[in-house]
Amino acid sequence: MSRPFASVRARATLAATLVVAVALVAAGTAVLLSLRSNLLGEAGTQAERSAREVATGLAFAKPYDDLPLDVDDRPVQVVDEEGRLVAASEDLERISGTGVDAVKPQPAVTARDAEDDAAEDDDDDDRGESLEPGEIGARTTVSDGSATIDGDTEDYRFAAVPVETEDRGRLTVYAGAPLSAEHGAVNTALTVMLIGFPVLLAVVAWVTWLVTRRALRPVEGIRREMAAITASEDLARRVPVPDTHDEVARLASTTNETLTALESSVERQRRFVADASHELRSPIASLRTQLEVAAAHPELLDLDGAVEDTVRLQRLAADLLLLARLDAGERPADARVDLAALAREATEGRRGVRVRAEEDVTVAGSRGQLERVLANLLDNAQRHARSAVEVSVRRDGGPHGAGGGGQTAVVAVADDGEGVPAADRERIFERFVRLDAARSRDDGGAGLGLAIARDVALRHGGTLTVRDTPAGGALFELRLPGA
């Protein structure tokens, strides 16, 4: 079952919207909590101010009737040490949150009663901070509650301030400040957020959708062109490269480089198939002709020619198979190969070939493939030499091409022939290429030997080059990283 298609634009838009939504919720929560904290602090400050104003009047022994108990219709209670309500706002109908629910003052106690109560409480540890007569406590206790004044019920923040009087003992003043401003501000901010956040998220989603569409437009152009190339199989076409110098432009450039390499590979493959077919056709046709003649006239059978064509066909098939494996990226074996011993074995039985080799020149790779390289180089050298071929094996501290740096093994095959013209020193390593002087299929082969030799060298991390010898012949030099 295939997965539903989700475009990059949709995912980017969704991701951006979710990130902004989370950020807005976090920021909005922080703003609401900060706003509520500030407003509660302001209400507590107002309540404390009112409580201390009443406490100041008590400290100066003002009568309860002269106290500012009804300022701004805020609830005020004055409670003695016994918890009795001795004074309160005139229109107070209900109150909670102060610890004293009474709203109507009780009869005031006499000074003697107050002194007796104070004497009874001298040993009480719950009187709080110690105050002198006429002194107002520095500590303020804050609490939240509600009150009903003249029929209106609201939430309040209450501040409790103790005061020590000379004639009435320890009193506590509870004064409240309304929380309506806090509730209103928080509710207004919450409403604005609930309305504004969705609008802002919609704007973010819309802008992200437009931006991603603009950013991905070149990608869509690349996709369309690639689809057209696939449909037409025209590897000469290229995708458009935007003039933005960003990741998309680099993607387009890399895609075109890949198409160029693919086109070159396909073209090389086509030429290889065509040349291979051409090279195979000749020995097959010759062998077939000989067999047909032999079938009609057995006495005319050229057995040596048939065997020669068969061997040539077998060698060509082996070369083609090795090239196919190399093109497929077959990695060489990681065995240790002694090039000096390999050179001696490769030159054994060959006339006019001399070997000069240092001992213990080893490389890591495929013995069979390296043996094939030496055989191809020796075949080529003997084909063009006038009289002598020299093979040398040595160690060199210089770079070895792809490996770079470190110990390098060098195998050089030199002949005393006419050499290779400078213009042809790279062309001779191409497949099915034979120079004019070696066009004979019988003597010059199919033109695959040097191509195979260079491919094997590259697969082993080395190089294969050709230059002139001091005597004017050709010098093929194989350089491989030492084991």
Overview in brief:
This protein is α+β, with helices and mostly antiparallel strands. The chain contains 9 helices and 13 strands.
Mind sketching the topology for me?
Blueprint: H1 8-59, E1 76-80, E2 85-88, E3 92-96, H2 111-120, E4 141-149, E5 152-164, E6 170-178, H3 180-232, H4 247-296, H5 303-327, E7 335-338, H6 339-347, E8 353-357, E9 362-365, H7 367-384, E10 389-396, E11 408-415, H8 441-444, H9 449-459, E12 463-468, E13 474-481
Parallel strand pairs: 8-10
Antiparallel strand pairs: 1-2, 1-6, 3-4, 4-5, 5-6, 7-9, 10-11, 11-13, 12-13
What does this entry look like structurally?
By secondary structure, the chain is of the alpha+beta class. It has three domains: 1-233, no CATH class; 247-327, Helix Hairpins (Orthogonal Bundle), CATH 1.10.287.130; 335-481, Heat Shock Protein 90 (2-Layer Sandwich). The chain has helices spanning 8-59, 111-120, 180-232, 247-296, 303-327, 339-347, 367-384, 441-444, 449-459, and strands at 76-80, 85-88, 92-96, 141-149, 152-164, 170-178, 335-338, 353-357, 362-365, 389-396, 408-415, 463-468, 474-481. The chain has a six-stranded antiparallel β-sheet. A five-stranded mixed β-sheet has the order 8-10-11-13-12. Helix 5 (303-327) runs parallel beside helix 9 (449-459) and helix 6 (339-347) crosses helix 7. The protein is rod-shaped. The model is unreliable at 118-126, 400-405 and 437-442 (pLDDT under 50).
